[in-house]
Write a sequence for this structure.
């Protein structure tokens, strides 16, 4: 279950970054204490989630908790983003991208594009807030919190989406707490805004209740069931009439999906849902659009007419007057981040939903890596968000209020400059995170003509400078972006190798590629390149289409794969082909009254087992190169050489591997500083296997050789202080049939020969 928690918590972290960020406190309406309490409540929620995660030992409860936590965290993220809009307004009302009306303790603003209205109420006296989102006059989201005492909070969320109403209630009491999930809600719950207490039934009467009482976990309610698609229909975006040659926008068509449990969901159509091709409008007549989703295919018709009058044309009215570079940057980033993470739906949310649904460890791990690169505390996008807030504060004249005491922060003062020629903001600011005060420097370049951005973020403590990462994106068309995130493998070295994520996405689909130990990618800033295949190639690639994830890992070590075919998975001796072969010889020797030491011939305990991890980790690009004082890698034909140095001792590893339809050959020779060598070799020729293990000084090797033909014909031979001869690429006729000591099974008959 822990793996689920790690992937879910980034939503909560993001919400706290936005909702609890101290940048926004101290404005014209000071809610500093309230925002501090919101942050405290968030930390208690995180602790509660982690504690429940650790206590659950029932698989059904674990999966249900992961699904419930994803839903409540997603709703919490949406609420946090709306709170962030109000917080930004409190500092920079003139630069806010929305008009906010204040009456008493209520802040109201609208999103005309989504036909949404948002009301936010703050009460400093009771340390509570209430947030209400309405769409088309219907309340779709309510989020409320109130402080009941020290480390004692009540928190609830109500969602109404596509005829399904849910209520999430939490009661946090220090290390204890309750989470109630009601999937059968019929109305908005009673408000807890300004409440100094809550009824005993609060957070106890849902469909499912997760309880921590004095550290002991209990669960009440029913487990969730898998749901399937039973029907879908188009609810908007497809007109009944189109004019000749009028473009049909798939991205604007929305369908409502009905599931087997009666719930519904609305999503936008993607190209992958189209059966065949989108009908063209180059001729008049009835046209049919065929869509397929969740295994169900349906047809929808429309008319193409000459000089049609469908009355659906829209003219957008922009703001009067020239916008500042800061506001253009803000608007671009909000559009990008809305598509990527904060919209409903969003690419990251769609990705998370698919990853959790499939519960594939590889996919979940890759999702976690990508989400952490995006939204962890030090992530590229989180720092970009903070940088933009500093810029807006500067233009509003409130920068000094945000950073009032630079003398105690290494003598640095916050600054913002703008180079109109390069369209680049240079900013510096400080922030306290944990025990340390960090200094941040960023360069953010935004080009309006191509709607593309490039940002680099650095930070430092005292005079130490650390490079945190680079962020780039470019809008291809509305709702469709290409982006990359990359950062140095060694965060102190901007001249070395990088971890790079390239991705192209819409709200519901996309592709991500990860490249490790890579050069910086080609820039997206102001690019005119064709980006249709962007993000499709990398060391690892994840693709989301029609709610389904595919994952490709191109980083493999063929030597390791061959080794495991003989040794067993993870090098385990038990149950391996090697054990079967050597155990057969040992049993035959014992039955004849003799002896046989199988451990001398096992690759499990050989240099191959000890050192193959070095090559495997290098080829999978997970090796920590910093553990060595010196590390070099060279490759020539089928030979790969690694030289390491630790504590003044140099070791050389020579790996050789080749294969064809009939045979596979693997050789490892390790040479130490004093000239001593260790050798491990494995050869497969058809169904026969050959092993050689050797160690010693040149021309003075103890060698152990084994040949496995079948269960009735096998050989094991010892030779002492002999010249080593590799079996790699050599003829193996009569191999292991002679030596100082030879164990044989020929035609099922065991014999032992001592020279």
């Amino acid at each position: 279950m822990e793996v689920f928690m790690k992937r879910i918590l980034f939503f909560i972290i993001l919400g706290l970054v936005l909702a609890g960020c101290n940048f926004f406190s101290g404005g014209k309406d000071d809610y500093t204490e309230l925002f501090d309490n919101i942050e405290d409540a968030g930390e208690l929620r995180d602790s509660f989630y982690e504690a429940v995660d650790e206590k659950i030992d029932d698989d059904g409860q674990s999966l249900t908790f992961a699904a419930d936590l994803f839903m409540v965290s997603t709703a919490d993220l949406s609420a946090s983003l709306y709170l962030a809009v109000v917080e930004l307004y409190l500092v920079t009302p003139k630069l806010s991208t929305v008009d906010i009306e204040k009456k008493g303790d209520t802040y109201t603003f609208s999103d005309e594009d989504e036909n949404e209205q948002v009301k936010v109420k703050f009460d400093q006296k009771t340390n509570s807030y209430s947030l209400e989102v309405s769409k088309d006059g219907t309340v779709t989201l309510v989020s409320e919190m109130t402080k009941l005492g020290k480390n004692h909070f009540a928190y609830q969320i109500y969602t109404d989406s596509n005829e399904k109403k849910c209520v999430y209630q939490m009661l946090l009491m220090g290390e204890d707490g309750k989470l109630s999930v009601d999937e059968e809600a019929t109305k908005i719950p009673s408000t807890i805004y300004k409440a100094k207490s809550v009824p005993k039934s609060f957070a106890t009467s849902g469909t499912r209740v997760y309880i921590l009482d004095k550290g002991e976990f209990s669960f009440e309610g029913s487990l969730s069931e898998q749901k399937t698609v039973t029907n879908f229909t188009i609810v908007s975006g497809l007109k009944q009439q189109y004019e000749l040659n009028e473009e049909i926008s798939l991205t604007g068509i929305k369908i409502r999906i009905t599931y087997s449990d009666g719930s519904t969901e609305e999503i936008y159509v993607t190209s992958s849902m189209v059966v065949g091709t989108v009908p063209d409008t180059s001729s008049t007549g009835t046209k049919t659009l065929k869509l397929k989703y969740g295994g169900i295919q349906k047809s929808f018709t429309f008319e193409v007419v000459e000089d049609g009058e469908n009355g659906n044309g829209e003219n957008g009215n922009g703001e009067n007057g020239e916008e500042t570079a800061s506001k253009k940057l803000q608007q671009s980033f909000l559009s990008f981040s809305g598509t990527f993470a904060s919209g409903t739906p969003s690419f990251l949310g769609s990705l998370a939903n698919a990853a959790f649904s499939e519960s594939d460890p590889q996919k979940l791990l890759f999702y976690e890596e990508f989400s952490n690169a995006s939204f962890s505390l030090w992530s590229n996008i989180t720092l970009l968000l903070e940088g933009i807030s500093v810029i807006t504060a500067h233009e509003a004249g409130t920068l000094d209020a945000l950073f009032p005491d630079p003398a105690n922060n290494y003598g640095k003062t916050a600054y913002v400059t703008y180079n109109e020629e390069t369209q680049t903001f240079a900013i510096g600011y400080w922030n306290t995170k944990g025990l340390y005060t960090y200094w941040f420097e960023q360069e953010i370049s935004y080009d309006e003509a191509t709607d593309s951005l490039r940002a680099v973020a650095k930070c430092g403590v005292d005079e130490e400078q650390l490079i945190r990462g680079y962020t780039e994106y470019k809008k291809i068309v509305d709702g469709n972006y290409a982006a990359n995130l990359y950062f140095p493998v060694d965060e102190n070295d901007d001249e070395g190798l990088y971890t790079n994520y390239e991705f192209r996405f819409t709200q519901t689909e996309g592709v991500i590629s990860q490249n490790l130990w890579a050069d910086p990618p080609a820039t997206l800033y102001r690019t005119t390149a064709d980006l249709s295949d962007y993000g499709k190639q990398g060391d690892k690639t994840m693709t989301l289409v029609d709610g389904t994830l595919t994952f490709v890992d191109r980083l493999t070590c063929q030597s390791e794969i061959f080794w495991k075919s003989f040794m067993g998975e993870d090098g385990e001796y038990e149950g391996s082909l090697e054990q079967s072969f050597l155990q057969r010889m040992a049993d035959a020797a014992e039955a004849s009254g003799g002896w046989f030491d199988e451990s001398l011939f096992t690759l499990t305990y050989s240099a191959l087992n000890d050192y193959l991890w070095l090559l495997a980790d290098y080829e999978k690009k997970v090796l920590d190169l910093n553990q060595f004082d010196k590390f070099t890698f060279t490759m020539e034909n089928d030979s790969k050489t690694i030289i390491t140095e630790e504590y003044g001792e140099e070791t050389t590893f020579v790996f050789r591997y080749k294969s064809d339809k009939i045979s596979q050959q693997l050789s490892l020779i390790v040479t130490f500083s004093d000239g001593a060598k260790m050798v491990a070799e494995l050869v497969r020729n058809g169904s026969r296997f050959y092993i050689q293990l050797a160690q010693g000084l040149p021309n003075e090797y103890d060698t152990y050789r084994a040949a496995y033909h079948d269960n009735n014909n096998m050989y094991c031979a010892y030779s002492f202080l002999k010249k080593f001869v590799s079996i790699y690429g050599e003829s193996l006729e009569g191999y292991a049939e002679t030596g100082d000591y030879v164990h044989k099974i020929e035609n099922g008959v065991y014999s032992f020969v001592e020279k």
In short: The chain has four domains: 1-224, 229-305, 325-553, 558-754. The longest strand covers residues 464-477. Residues 229-305 form a domain with the Immunoglobulin-like fold (CATH 2.60.40.3630).
